Amino acid sequence: ELLSAYVLEKNGGLFISPGTIVYNMRNILCKLNSYDLVTFGGSLLNNSCTSKLYPNSYILGCKANTEFIKLYKENLTNKFLSNAESIMSDILLNNKINQFHFSCDCDGTRNDTNTIININDYLGKKTIKYKNINNVSLISIPYEELLRNNEHAWFTNLSYNQFTSMDIFICRLLKKLLKI
C-alpha cells in the first residue's frame, strides 16, 4: 500500500493489487476524472458492503496530489505496521473527501448470500456465485492469504501446464477470461 500511495500521489490513476482480476472497466476510469478518490468494496474491519468510509484497500483510484493521498501516504509512512484499511477509514471519517465508492457488488468480494469470499472458495471446485455478476468490474482476491499460509503453497508453485489442467474455480475463471 505504501508504494501505491507514493505512485498515486505523484501520478494519480488506479492502483490494483496483484490479486485483482480486471473483469470489466467500463465505469471505473470515468470516475477518476470526476472524483478525487475512487474506492471499492468493504473492509474486513467493518462488515459493511456499501459504506464509503470502510473500503477495500486492494483497489484504490485517485487524482495526483489530492489531500487524501497525501494523508494516506503520510499515515502509512508514520504508522508502518498499522492496517492500511484502518488508516484509510480514519482519514475518510475525519476529512471531507470528494469520493466515489463502488460497493461490494463491483469488486467481487461477496457471494450471492452476501458472504465474504475467501481464498479457500477460489481454490475450491465449487463455482462461486457473485453477489451480482452483472455489476462486477474487478475481482479482488485476498492474495495475501496465498502468500502467508503455507497450506496454499502448492498453488503458488503451479507450472503453466498444471494451472491450465486444474479444475478449481480460480483456474476456470482465469482460463475463461484469458481465453485459454
The overall average pLDDT, rounded, is 88
Instruction: Categorize the overall geometry.
Output: globular
The major sheet is characterized as: 4 strands, mixed
Order of strands side by side in the largest beta sheet?
Answer: 1-4-3-5
State the separation between the terminal residues, measured CA to CA: 31 Å
How many strands appear in the DSSP assignment?
6
H-E string: HEEHEEHHEHHEHHHH
Overall helicity: 40-55%
Radius of gyration: 17 Å
Number of helices: 10
Low-confidence segments, given as residue ranges, are: none
Class by alpha and beta content: alpha+beta
In terms of DSSP E residues, the strand content is 5-15%
Describe this structure in words.
- The protein is α+β, with helices and mostly antiparallel strands.
- Helix content is 41%, strand content 14%.
- The protein has 10 helices and 6 strands, in the order H-E-E-H-E-E-H-H-E-H-H-E-H-H-H-H.
- The chain has helices at 2-11, 28-34, 67-78, 84-94, 104-107, 119-122, 143-148, 153-156, 160-165, 169-178, and strands at residues 13-16, 20-22, 37-40, 56-62, 99-102, 138-140.
- The strands form 2 sheets. A 4-stranded mixed β-sheet has the order 1-4-3-5, with helices on both faces.
- Helix 1 (2-11) runs antiparallel to helix 3 and helix 3 packs across helix 4 (84-94).
- The longest helix is centred in the middle third of the chain and has 12 residues, at 67-78.
- The model has no long low-confidence stretch (mean pLDDT 88).
